[in-house]
Amino acid sequence: MTNTSLEVIGYVRCDYKEKFGIPRQSGLTDCATAFIEMLPPYNQAEAFRGLDGFSHLWLLWDFSKAHKNGFTATVKPPKLGGNQRMGVFATRSPFRPNNIGLSSVRLLDIIYNEENGCVHGLVVSGADILDGTPVYDIKPYLPYTDSHPEATGGWTDSLDIPELSVRFSDDITAKLETIFSSAQIEALKEILAQDPRPGYQDEPNRRYGMLYGGYDIRFTISGDTLTISEVAEPGPQ
Amino acid sequence: MTNTSLEVIGYVRCDYKEKFGIPRQSGLTDCATAFIEMLPPYNQAEAFRGLDGFSHLWLLWDFSKAHKNGFTATVKPPKLGGNQRMGVFATRSPFRPNNIGLSSVRLLDIIYNEENGCVHGLVVSGADILDGTPVYDIKPYLPYTDSHPEATGGWTDSLDIPELSVRFSDDITAKLETIFSSAQIEALKEILAQDPRPGYQDEPNRRYGMLYGGYDIRFTISGDTLTISEVAEPGPQ
């Protein structure tokens, strides 16, 4: 007999409002912070006792936008050009038998609610998770058992993922500065530098849009340079 | 809307037949192997394509012997002497809001069933998991994003966990050799050297028993030496 239901213990609150543009693995954009808002009764301050000594955490969460029926044995990793299939168990694809995501993040702060003595939530960085994602567990990262720097990364070892150079014009920079904090702007640069396009697209004239922090960031990519062309308020949904 | 049910994709088959004696974290006993038996439809060979290039895996599994009702914010880690409470989110305790265990293991082999073209299962080492445990997911270990050797381990950093010296008499050695493979005997030595007692017990005359590979391994511990006194067939359940 196994458990068949999962309790949501919290929700991710962050600037990633849609799947497009989210870093493909955790830890790649250390600038971008996320807030893990805790729900009662899991927000009792006692439940976090001793957590502040850990630099990193594991988050277990729900691939809430990737549910589908039925099992497909293979997936097409975007970074393999989107036309090569790998076994789902050889990938971290969201389309898997159970939609549980696993991310290691850096713990920056624990925010207590002075009024009720509970934890409001955790500030973390490096999360590759969509805003509003349900969280199922928080576990401490234990370096003596979780860290295997000598591990081989299989087909991911041979991926050559160059960073893009990201260009903001003076106008765009001024606009960004009226909207975002400097940390958010740094995070946006990091995210864009990792090339949010699927691996099989290379259309210099195509205009891409990515929702970030409630705004639609529009850009083009030519060669290894990404240029932001507009920062627009998103239209009605 | 989140998923509320989990599909069992396989079962752990190993020599740990009861909770007592299981290593407290994955990777501590590299000798001990476990078999992850896959269930249809998740055993399709295609689902494992590309997995053989990874040296390590993550297993997500069910703490099937640790279900309980209600949420308790703190737990008593055995290695803290069993009388000090830590927040559940600062531990890897099985008693947590969702009973999902997380273990990194070494991938030793993928066993194919020649007759039906499916995967029978995976041979792994370092699993800290009970025999018969339901498995929910298998993910590749990605060293570039999962390995943080610089991470701080909070209260676990200050634990001093000395290894016991394990003594087998000639009689016991001969008996073990008639029952177990030499790899199983090595694994048993590793497991016992890590001191299976809860941290708060220190009774030199107490006789402990641990089920391993279908046999009841009985031993005493005095100072830093563990001596096996008997290897018995377990009684009727």
UniProtKB/TrEMBL annotation, chains A, B:
TsaA-like domain segment(s): 6-150
UniProt keywords, alphabetically: Methyltransferase, S-adenosyl-L-methionine, Transferase
Cross-referenced PROSITE patterns:
TSAA_1, TSAA_2
**Molecular function terms in GO for this entry?**
methyltransferase activity
Q: What domain of life does the native source organism fall in?
A: Bacteria
The record's section on CDD domains has:
UPF0066
Does the keyword section mention tRNA processing?
Answer: no
GO BP annotations of the record are: methylation
Q: Which family does it belong to?
A: Belongs to the tRNA methyltransferase O family.
Q: By its UniProt entry, which NCBIfam families does this protein fall under? A: tRNA_TsaA (TIGR00104)
* PANTHER family the record matches: TRNA (ADENINE(37)-N6)-METHYLTRANSFERASE
The name of this protein is: tRNA (N6-threonylcarbamoyladenosine(37)-N6)-methyltransferase TrmO
> What is the originating organism of this protein?
Coprococcus eutactus
Name the encoding gene, please. tsaA
